[in-house]
Specification:
three-stranded antiparallel sheet, 136 residues
């Protein structure tokens, strides 16, 4: 339970090895588990990256990429100097870091529901519950 309360325990260190402009680099990263405020700010930052984009002509992939960049920006507490969005040549680097951050976040979700069968609900068999009405 302490890892849910103590913010210092909700951090994860990892190393990434990847090519940047054809040169192999390696770096130490640290990320934190997102708070409610972090989650809100990630959405806000992602929308800023898309500022001025025409919603009719913006590909879903572009929106996902903006969310990944915003997530990394907000949740990385340590990063190597070479990890600078403005200077990276391949989105695969951002993706690799994002996957590690997301894997860490997911590890908390797994622990929170450990031993609990969340696929089943006592109200699931109730027709009214299936239609969005509360069972009486």
């Amino acid at each position: 339970m302490q890892e849910y309360i103590d913010a210092e325990l909700r951090k994860h260190k990892f190393t990434i090895k990847t090519p940047v402009f054809g040169k192999d680099v390696e770096g130490e990263f640290e990320c934190k588990y997102p708070s409610v405020l972090d989650s809100l700010k990630i959405q806000t930052e992602a929308s800023k990256y898309l500022e001025g984009a025409d919603p009719q002509n913006t590909f879903d992939n572009t929106v996902v990429q903006a969310l990944k960049i915003a997530t990394n920006d907000r949740l990385l507490t340590k990063r190597p100097k070479w990890y600078n969005i403005e200077n990276l040549d391949d989105f695969a680097v951002v993706d690799e870091v994002y996957k590690e951050v997301e894997k860490f976040i997911e590890s908390f979700r797994q622990k929170m529901y450990e031993g609990e069968d969340t696929r089943n609900s006592t109200e699931a068999d109730n027709a009214k519950a299936m239609e969005g009405e509360q069972a009486i």
